[in-house]
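Structure tokens
________________
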Amino acid sequence: MNIKRSFFDRLSGNSSADDSFDSFDDEVPAAPPSRKESHSSRSGEVATRPAPLEDDAAEMEGQLPVDVHQTASDIVIRAFVAGVRPDELSISISRDRVEIEGSRMEREQVSGPDYFTRELFWGSFSRAIMLPQEVDVEASSAAAKDGLLTIILPKLDKARQTKLKVKAG
């Protein structure tokens, strides 16, 4: 009887072959792909990622990539929103959270077989960002220039104190 040595035995150089330990490298049949290949792979090219099923495409929502950093007095959020008009963006700010929502619609309709490569995201997108510190919601600002959205959130200074005088009468 030929007993296969375990992965650990082969890795460590142990020559004991009378272990009844199952090997981890037994052949496992690969599962068939659950998504359709993109149109470019049908024409002979290698696709970099599978295209979504038509049923999934209607309910997919993209997640907006962002950069978040701080200065001495502000938290700054930047995101590329090329192809989105400022009035198509919705930004909600609370003291510890920012939500950015919008949609990017295709201006021209191209049928599926006419694409060679399709990597741009079209449709609605959103992003919720938990802030590392509380911010002043009223003094916050947002601007979009050259497809780059910049949100500036002034930090609340919890150490700052104000003295109130009590008025008589």
About this structure: The longest helix spans residues 7-12.
